[in-house]
Fold this sequence. Notes:
It contains ten helices and nine strands. It has helices spanning 3-9, 11-21, 41-55, 88-96, 112-115, 134-146, 152-161, 183-198, 234-240, 252-269; strands at residues 34-38, 61-65, 77-81, 101-105, 118-121, 174-179, 202-206, 222-226, 244-246. Helix 8 links the parallel strand 6 (174-179) and strand 7 (202-206).
Amino acid sequence: MTHTEAEIASQPACWARAAELAADAPLPQPGERVAVVGCGTSWFIAQAYAALREASGQGETDAFAASEFPSGRAYDRVLALTRSGTTTEVLALLTAVDTPTVAITADPATPVMTAAGEVIVLDFADERSVVQTRFATTQLALLRANLGEDLTGAIADAELALSDDLGDLVDAEQYTFLGRGWTNGLAAEAALKMREAARAWTESYPAMEYRHGPISIAGPGRVTWMLGPAPDGLAAEVVGCGGTFAESGRDPLAELVKIQRVAVARALARGLNPDEPLHLTRSVILP
């Protein structure tokens, strides 16, 4: 078993542990105007959380790639997501803003511990693999639980996703991931996992945008994968184009677990090492 496979399999337990920590975590308070920042996977998790927080009525929440943070905009708090605690753009932002800051990280022996005003350490979800799986989803589990969500169903769904037969999904020529609301961030993350681990041709879109051009590439051997409830009629349109439409009634975060498994299986089938994908490192540290 690769490190990535083992880390994927550990996610239900990690989510349960994160849910236990959520009530006491120093996270944004209701009513605060919040910016959530990260790079790569963390940026996509930031997008998911921002949509969830706004939808729950807890306050205006924006998500940015750390390098694109609008320095002149006023926020009550900046939340930074960084597995490594060493990402250059995140550290530069944390040290530049006057706004109260909090970071979520996996490694307590990194510069983010002093760069952020407060830090939440999820070291039990840290990873040996370069490709993020369990740390990303455990962050979001913590954030969802802090918003008041009960994760019991999501954890049960993740257990089921770990035993699913992947069938022909591993052999597809192309994958398009679709989301709505908070799952747009998950769709972007799903596409990134397939690129990183398996060097696959993947795209992601808001589901209602799929008809506005991207559906033109649907066809035999190509998968359109929905995270969350699909718009009416979309599945039939994809099938009518000869494509495969993948969806489930499970929690979308659990569906991401299945997608992670497909990415790893596809990588291994092609002789790739999902633990150490080409051209990538655990953290981007700029000179």
